[in-house]
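Email to the structure team, subject: AEC family transporter model.

Hi all, the expression group asked for a predicted structure before they design truncation constructs. Nothing fancy, just the tokens so they can compare against earlier work. One-line instruction: predict AEC family transporter, return tokens.
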Amino acid sequence: MLQIILTSLFPLIGLISFGYLLKHGQWLSEDFWRGAEKLNYYALFPVMLFLNLATAKIQMNVIQDVVLVVFSIMIVVSIALYMLRHMYQISYARFGVYVQGLLRFNTYIGLAAVSSLFHQQGMTIFAVIMVLCIPLVNILSVLAFTRSHDMQLKKIILDLSKNPLILGCMVGGVFNLSGLALWAGAEQFLKQIALCSLPLGLMCVGAALKFQGFQRDVLPLSLMTFGRLFGMPLIAFLVCKIFQIDAFTTQVLVLFFALPTASASYVLTRVYGGDSQLMASIISVQTVVAAGSLILVLSWII
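Reply from the structure team: attached below.
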């Protein structure tokens, strides 16, 4: 089993490393990476999510299990974080970073790992998780940075209604429920577009890595990395056992909660005046450490 896991994850690690080398070797310009991220976020990735959900066999009991586990964990961890903020008087600039470091997830790494290990059935479960978690973690992340929540909540909901990833999932789900079938030519066209998404996305993850200023924040970096990559999957496993979730869905959920935080966390942190240097360090360290931690977590649950 370890050999299967290593074989499945090696291409992911290789593509992230390749993206890092291309960016920092300055072989491609900064404009290229901005364009690549935009193309993937607004076109390639939504098409892949649409195609996956449009052709999937979605079981209602799986959706119920995912909703139960995801909301239970997010609520419990959020309450714990707010209690710690109150106890230690953590500034908003840093609290938002901690929330993102524990609750946000890297969709590219997640989908690439799930597609390699769990194939179509796992991808369907992961897509359901994304539909739930993308709005939820965005709302929690923005609220963690702000004092006046009412106005911010309205803005978040408006922004999320235009999120291409959520729209891709929703349109795919509606198409699936409609009972319609894609024309074979159109399906092949969409598949070719979707095939481009994960490799490009993983290279963009590598290009976004930054390795400066680690000495300033060794303790929070260590806590955030251990908590996200080992603490969260352990909590997910225990919650799945409590709710008696089947083994396959448990494996996908544990993998989801073992993912490093999202590269987009850095952008959100800068927009809301958070500690962007700390956020960049957390993203980079978690992404690198995840190369080993994912192997350990997957070896444990599979």
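The chain has one domain: 1-301. DSSP finds 13 helices and no strands in the chain. Ping us if the truncation boundaries need rechecking.
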